[in-house]
Amino acid sequence: METIKINTSQHVEIDYPVAGLGERVAAYLLDFAMFMIIYFIAMIALAIIGIESTLKNSSIVIMVIIFAVGYVFYDLLCEVIFNGQSLGKKLLKIKVVSLDGGQASIGQYFIRWVFRIVDFTLTANMLGFICVAVSEKKQRIGDLVAGTTLIRTVPATKMEHIAFHPFESEEYIPVFENVTILSDRDVELIHEVVRTYYTTHNAQLIYQMAAKVSGHLAVAIPEGMNEMQFLKTVSSDYIYLTSRAV
Asked: Smallest Cα–Cα separation from 3: which of 18, 20, 14, 19?
């Protein structure tokens, strides 16, 4: 299963699975069904009103024009306004993101929209579907050019799989102020060691990692704090301090 890593503001990487062809098609059909329902409701309302024939005909023409314009610009406007989601995408829990895992720019949304002509209109949808089916990141031509793809908004990495959960408390007081000399990779390694401990229950891994970290920071593990608590505190301090430095 293809995934894209997205960094949270607390420097925690979350894996999100890439949306497949079936989810894209289902989202498109939901959006199209919504348009058809709105169109038929409008037509029925005009018929019920029973206005004069000439006015009725002109109203139908106006409705058709509004419907056509809305249909053409629907995806672009929704993705810009709703951060990469149309109604169908929201219901299917998928969204457009940049390949670096960040939110796509207005320019990227625009490129995707322009290339709908190639992916869908000129090729009867076939080019877009084939490209999504065979490309590594499940991208149509518009995605390849814009540098985007669609992800499922439900992450593959669950919060319970992360050793140190992100927090939003403004009242947190760091214990080790010099943890910023560590790198993201150092803290990721701490996370990995703790996750491994929870799987293997090999306490020696925790002792060795705590010794290396305390030596690197040139600090002693405070009295009353065990090695696991020390590693968690170091990670929490790092997350807190670096998230406020950006």
From this structure: 18
